[in-house]
Amino acid sequence: MGSLSIWHWMIVIVVVLLLFGRGKISDLMGDVAGGIKAFKKGMAEDDTKPEPSKSASSAEPKTIDHQAQATPAAEKARADS
Fold this sequence. Notes:
Order of helices and strands: HHH
């Protein structure tokens, strides 16, 4: 009673095909295959490390000025006080 025979599986397959149709199932399998290929391609790109260019290694690091730039009105108000 616990095991499923071949007839049970045939009925399940027929019901699935009737509900989803052949086109939707093949489209779904194509999407899954495309996702797997994209994943493998992404993993292969992660394995290869880009070589640093000579200009990037010889350039000095940039500094950022954290002070807000004063507007002419703010400078005038600061000069008046």
